[in-house]
Design a protein that fits this description.
About 45% of the residues lie in helices and about 15% in strands. By secondary structure, the chain is an alpha/beta fold. α4 packs parallel to α12 and α7 runs parallel beside α8.
Length: about 375
């Protein structure tokens, strides 16, 4: 049976952060939420069935990470991304955000320079700052809604850095980095002896004709300096199940990380996450194909609505992720006025551009992982607010 992504499933009063935490985070509860990155869609039936078997058994003791979980990950990356995962390189974590922070702690020391490419996923800043590492910004360059990497600046920053945190596909600007771009990044990192921490959590949410290229797969040399973080959680809407993993090919880097993480016992992920990840990877491809078509339809709908009704709001080219990066600069509002307009006038909960660091001013991030009717309602509210 094909999934019905048009179904509007009530999520209020389900302890959903997206729907039930609006008052605390945005100052009022009556907003239409298109912010935090989870989707308003039910998971694939194969995931529900696997979880149901676990629930029917009714015992949730300590759970073994048996070979089938590793095999599901190896199979997925081989089929979807042409990358041969070494099962021995896989380590689990309760999330990509904690993984990034633990990796920063384990693989760098206080004062080390870490490069981020803003505007970028905000927890990367926390990982750098709260761990007292030195933030080096390699700001992305925007031209007419398309973002590119400033390689001259990256070269300069790399001289004083220990690590680059790469976001591929890039949240929030929607880029899927091309092979030539990744090769340049890798060449600079190899030459300056940087570790690449590649967050590829959105890598299955990529729209044709783009293809995700795992940076670790470029060559054995690049693989040895790369740690890749991933989870089934964005793709299959499992974020609440707190299960992610990383792949660390180099035994020395892996051992360094393991020494730090064994101490924290962060590898003990829960059976619901493991079971659903394996079910999604083993059987979820038809659902994902339908999801990608639907999300692309939402993006097209958004583009045509903006062109017809809100021509001064631009959207960046979406190559990957379900997060649209909206440019309101033409409206000439101050950052606070834009935020107020979205929350108080449009009554929408979006992600405010400045939270993603420099280059975010004048932008808002909108989550397209919702039924089209919800998206239409959001855009109608925005039109009324900006009129
Ligand atoms: C780039 C990126 N990394 C990580 C995460 C979250 O990862 P987790 O929920 O596994 O901590 C998100 C969620 O939006 C994300 O966009």
């Amino acid at each position: 049976m094909l999934p019905n992504f048009d179904e509007v499933i009530p999520r209020r009063n389900t302890d959903s952060v997206k729907f039930d935490d609006l008052e605390k985070r945005f100052g009022r509860p009556d907003l239409l939420p298109l912010w935090v990155a989870d989707m308003d869609f039910r998971v694939p039936n194969c995931v529900t069935a696997a979880l149901q078997r676990l629930v029917d058994h009714g015992i949730y003791g300590y759970h073994l990470k048996s070979p089938k979980y590793f095999q599901a990950i190896v199979g997925w990356w081989g089929r979807r991304h042409g990358y041969a995962v070494d099962p021995a390189s896989i380590l689990f974590s309760p999330g990509v955000v904690p993984a990034v922070s633990h990796l920063v702690q384990a693989l760098t020391v206080k004062g080390d320079g870490i490069i981020l490419q803003p505007p970028v996923y905000h927890p990367f800043f926390w990982a750098v700052r709260t761990n007292q590492r030195r933030l080096l910004e390699n700001r992305l360059v925007e031209k007419g809604g398309a973002y590119a990497i400033d390689f001259d600046d990256l070269e300069v920053k790399a001289r004083e850095a220990r690590m680059l945190i790469l976001c591929n596909p890039h949240n929030p600007v929607g880029r899927v980095w091309r092979r030539e771009e990744l090769e340049k990044i890798a060449e600079i990192c190899l030459r300056h002896k940087l570790i690449i921490l590649s967050d590829e959590i959105h890598n299955d949410l990529v729209f044709r004709p783009h293809r995700h290229i795992p940076i670790a797969g470029l060559s054995p040399e690049v693989d040895r300096i790369t740690v890749t973080c991933h989870a089934a959680s964005k793709t299959f809407n499992l974020a609440g199940l707190s299960t992610a993993y990383m792949m660390i090919r180099d035994p020395k880097i892996r051992e360094t990380y393991k020494q730090a993480s064994d101490f924290l016992h962060v590898e003990a992920v829960n059976p619901f996450g493991l079971v659903s990840t394996a079910a999604a990877f083993d059987e979820g491809e038809p659902w994902l194909a339908a999801l990608l078509d639907y999300l692309w339809g939402n993006y097209e709908f958004l583009k045509s609505f903006l062109a017809a009704d809100l021509p001064r709001v631009k959207v960046s080219l979406l190559e990957g992720t379900y997060l649209a990066w909206l440019d309101f600069r033409d409206h000439g509002l101050s950052p606070q006025a834009l935020k107020d307009c979205v929350i108080q006038k449009a009554r929408l909960a979006l992600n405010d551009g400045p939270m993603f660091g420099s280059g975010g001013e004048g932008f808002q991030r909108m989550n397209l992982g919702c039924p089209r009717a919800t998206l239409r309602q959001a855009l109608e509210r925005m039109r009324a607010a900006l009129e």
